[in-house]
Amino acid sequence: MPTDPALPQGRAAHDVLGELRALRAKDAPTRGGRTFAYVYDPGLDGLDELAAEAYAAYASVNGLDMTVFPSVARLENDLVAAAVSLLGTPGAQGSFTSGGTESILLAVKTARDHARAVRGVTAPRLVLPSTAHAAFHKAAAYLGLETVVVPVDARTFRADAAATAAAVTEQTALVVASAPSYAHGVVDPVPEIAAAAAERGVLCHVDACIGGWLLPYLRRAGRQVPDFDLSVPGVTSLSVDLHKYGYSDKGASVVLYRDAGLRRHQYFAHAGWPGYPVVNPTVQGSKPAGLLAQAWAVQRHIGEDGYTALAERIAVSMDRLLTGLRAMDGVRVLGDPEASLVAFTPTGADGAPDASRMLHLADEMRERGWYLQPQLSFDGLPPNLHLTLTPATQGRVDALLGDLRTSLDAARAREPVTADPGLVRLAADLDPDALGSDEIAAVLAFAGLDGKDDGGGAVGLPRRMAPVLALLDALPRRLKERLLIEFVGSVFRV
Ligand SMILES: Cc1ncc(COP(=O)(O)O)c(C=O)c1O
Questions:
Q1: Ligand 1 pocket check: which of 241, 243, 245, 291 to mutate, most ligand atoms within 8 Å of Cβ?
Q2: N6-(pyridoxal phosphate)lysine: which positions carry it (predicted)?
Q3: Atom of ligand 1 nearest to the CA of 103
Q4: 206: closest CA among 242, 183, 232?
Q5: With a 6 A CB cut-off, is 210 part of the ligand 1 pocket?
Q6: Separation of 247 CA from ligand 1 center, angstroms?
Q7: What is the pLDDT of residues 397-455, one digit of tens each?
Q8: What is the mean pLDDT of the chain?
Q9: Does the beta carbon of 135 sit less than 6 angstroms from any atom of ligand 1?
Q10: pLDDT of 451
Q11: In this model, does residue 155 exceed pLDDT 90?
């Protein structure tokens, strides 16, 4: 029986590229300072072209085997050496990875294997503040560690060093601190947490994925920055993403360890099969050397003074934005953000966070061409809007504040969005794992996540997300997670 071909007939290069460009035009802009999450725009002319050329020069090289492609080792050594000199301590070693999540996965694997080998730990645990990035929970789930989540201070949003120390036991493989946390942009008390871990012979990882390439340059630009890196006694590993404030394209991070002995637990070798002897320092086997090359080229092009100047631009924007937000009626900035991330929440007449207004505000801002990231309530911490500032924010702050004021008024004028209390009651009794596909489809449809596009975008999301997010915010966590998985499964429908 004839079957359909897997692919249509080949087309001319310009035709294929034209289609790609048309698809891309429907996405949020990654340049221009209006998208306040996911992307890092240094606002430097020619940098994108440099990164693309560097990638192209290495696009066909396989980073798997540095004995065949020795320049790969040279590029990685240069990048890791730069990270060691910025954030390390003499003798520190590391690896180039594909991103923050991979760096964190590797740091957790290293700690697990170290705890097993050196301390005889049999049921390894990961102690982390409630604000630690979700990637640590993913690592624990992948690698079979139990998580011990410690609530943060509800006023400063910083990790509670005493409570974290109290959570450490004989089975703890790793303790985590963030510099800064993604959600609120505050730096955890790293010296206290690392000292408490060291006292028990336990490793301590600093997640500087987002702040690691920015905080030292903010310090160089004259700003106060708390101690957070590998030079702090007791810190044994650290992650720093080059695809954030290093301004590389996506797929670039570094994980560092205090010494070679520790890094050895990260490596994997296998000589027990008939193929080539395998040694993989990181998760991937074959890996794109193009990402290494573009990160290397971008870093060398920007240089020390360049990064310092970019940090200064962020600091100036941050000051201006915080001053504007703090002067605005009906808005509260959460904590005392120390780097480039701001979380704020609209408040009601009683001064309490107003989730409904926050969700409307996000939609209103999107209508005006800005993407601010909604963060839902968690364990007593208020729901809020999150902004990641970049050098491209400079020059946009006044326009942003102006649109925020208009959008706040528009959000106030809208009917409050609340989740249907009947559905929330019903949901509380559902077992998310026992739900069949029909029931899941019904809940998704009710939540507005059934793929029916009202004109907002190609993945079937409604244009106004407030009702969807209000419902998600009210659902129990496990059900929320099941719905998210089913929704994304419906987007990647093949
Ligand atoms: C503090 C922190 N850790 C980890 C990550 C995960 O990084 P990635 O998205 O590169 O996997 C992020 C991403 O924003 C982050 O901000």
A1: 241
A2: 244
A3: 11
A4: 232
A5: yes
A6: 14
A7: 999 999 999 999 999 999 999 888 888 888 888 899 888 888 888 888 877 777 655 44
A8: 95
A9: yes
A10: 63
A11: yes
- Asked if residue 354 has its Cβ within 6 Å of ligand 1, the reply is no
Which domains does the chain carry? Answer: 54-299 (3.40.640.10), 421-491 (no CATH)
Report the nearest atom of ligand 1 relative to the CA of 101. Answer: 11
Q: Which two tokens stand for residue 176?
A: 């985590």
